[in-house]
Amino acid sequence: MRKFLVAFFVFFAFLPYGLAESDLAEHSKSAILIEVSTGRVLYEKNSDEKLAPASMTKIMSMLLIMEAIESGRLHFDDSVMISKNAASMGGSQIFLQEGETYQVQELLKGIAVASGNDAVVAMAEKVCGSVSEFVKKMNERAQELGLKNTHFVNPHGLDAEGHYSSARDMSIIGRELVKHEKILEFTSIYEDYLKKPDGSSTWLVNTNRLVRFYNGVDGLKTGFTNTAGYCVTTTAKRNHMRILSVVMGAETGDLRTADTTNLLNYGFNGFQVQTILEKNQIVGTMFLPLAKKEFVDAIIPEDVTEVEKVTDQKESYSYDVVFDEVEVPIQKGDKVGTVYIKNSKGTIIQEKNITVLESVEKANIWNLFCRNVKSWL
Questions:
Q1: Would you call 318 a catalytic residue per the annotation?
Q2: What ranges in the chain are assigned the alpha helix state H?
Q3: Is 55 a catalytic residue?
Q4: pTM (two decimals)
Q5: Which tens digit of pLDDT belongs to each residue from 183-240?
Q6: Which of 157, 208, 299, 360 has the most CB atoms around its CB within 10 Å?
Q7: Are residues 226 and 308 in the same domain?
Q8: Which of 92, 115, 165, 245 is catalytic?
């Protein structure tokens, strides 16, 4: 059986480029493919249809966990005691027992790799005190991300009335999650073991087989219920380009894999990312007569990239800078203006905030006096 699965995945991993777009996700009810750095949609099919997301729900749960960790409210080595509620969860699980204690990082691995419903409930209780409060936060975060076709009822994705999402919304959540690069250290694990307090171990194997069989795949999350069918949100990185696909409602796991592989092949073979401006690149100089330093460089705080079709002639870009009326002092990270990226036709395609590389101090009387004396000489 293992040899058959290997042959299947290798076959699909090397499908020739050239499929018609209409065939890319023919086995799925809904699908989308995006380039992550820009959020640009490369392909979509019924991407706004409300469908059951199954365990892809855990992408939002993992996002809230990672945000709690990066804010300092939670730590990877914090202890989590398993409640009766968490231990009683059905569906996919890592067989946690009431009263056992694990570290956050162990439970996060159980969620990311083995899709443990018991693990995600335990983490929901740890982060927000109760599952209901965690679900409330999930929906608040969905609103903050501008999701229009998503509503959560639980943190795990078991079928429930009023629990739904869409391919587009899942891609937005997934894109937000991969900003927390540490999560990819968990979602990229194919198999591992969870050591239990009694000395035994539970085997964890990734429900996303493409982590092992498709070059560059390092996440994110599969899903299956009778209502949802087979779903998966997948991300992969090659040649400095990260793409993310979502397929929902396939009839079998093999068809889910086939559609995902077609989408990834289409993305990597058909598109490339061009860097227009690099992080911390100087884009202009501000004149600040009341600052200790009269002329201050403005920089772009992040890479600015654009997606192009491989077959297209290489695009040329330009940019204009408009400074805000700012008062000193200015702190590093404060917005001081906007850079407008234009394509070769002069059309504005992106707008990005600009800031200063270092904080700018206000000039004192002595600074101004010396500056005036210098101008008289």
A1: no
A2: 2-13, 58-70, 84-87, 104-112, 117-128, 131-144, 167-177, 184-187, 210-213, 253-270, 365-376
A3: yes
A4: 0.86
A5: 999 999 999 999 999 889 999 999 899 999 999 999 999 999 999 999 999 999 998 8
A6: 157
A7: no
A8: 115
